[in-house]
Amino acid sequence: MVRRSGRRPGNQDTKQSILEAARTAFAEIGYDKASIRAIAAAAQVDPALVHHYFGTKEKLFLASMNSPIDPAVLIPQAMAGPREEAGERLVALVLRVWDSPAGGAAVALLRSAVSNEWTARLMREFLVTQVLRRAITVLDIDEKEAPTRAALVATQIGGLALVRYVLKVEPVASAPAEQLVAALAPTVQRYLTGDLPGVFET
């Protein structure tokens, strides 16, 4: 039987080719602009094969990031509860994941992102589109304010991850998670839902 032109056989090399094409697309043009069809074309496979291996674009993105978590599951769980406690739950979730054995992959990615612009783009896309955007959506925050609020939250989450897991600055590096939650949650909460004088004034 003659195989369709441009389609690779279904094996591990094919999956790797798809993942490489996906990483390139997500890093170069971002999660929102990347498409399954374009990624398939870059990998020289049929789009149906991408769906077969990875399902949705979101699942493909998580696979390309080697993500230890599925934000689609964890973020809604973390955000469930009183709106005024969302910052506390978000910081607690981040620490729980990064302090767990599964956090090793995230730490390795963060270390790479510090020195590699390509990896930094992937990390940024993951943080913004998969974590912060979900949290903002669940909290029903004004869409005009959402990008700024998400970016401000990222300063705290990203800074915490860098200081605790990469630079390992004491006493933050060895502090109990509950202490860090108590210290950071009020600031994250303010960025999420609080008043930010001078930020949104026109």
What features would you describe in this structure?
The protein has two domains: 12-65, Homeodomain-like (Arc Repressor Mutant, subunit A); 71-193, Tetracycline Repressor, domain 2. Helix content is 69%, strand content 0%. The protein contains ten helices and no strands. Residues 1-10 have low confidence and may be disordered.
CATH homology group of the largest domain: Tetracycline Repressor, domain 2
The CATH architecture classification of the largest domain is Orthogonal Bundle
Whole-number mean pLDDT: 87
For this structure, the CATH topology of the largest domain is: Tetracycline Repressor, domain 2
Structural category is mainly alpha
Helix count, DSSP H or I runs of 4 or more residues:
10
| CA distance, first residue to last residue | 65 Å
- Gross geometry: globular
Question: How many domain units?
Answer: 2
H-E string: HHHHHHHHHH
| Helical amount | 55-70%
How would you characterize the largest beta sheet? Answer: none
CATH top level class name of the largest domain: Mainly Alpha
- In what range is the share of β-strand residues? under 5%
Please compute the radius of gyration using only Cα atoms: 19 Å
Extract low-pLDDT stretches: 1-10
Q: Give the strand tally.
A: 0
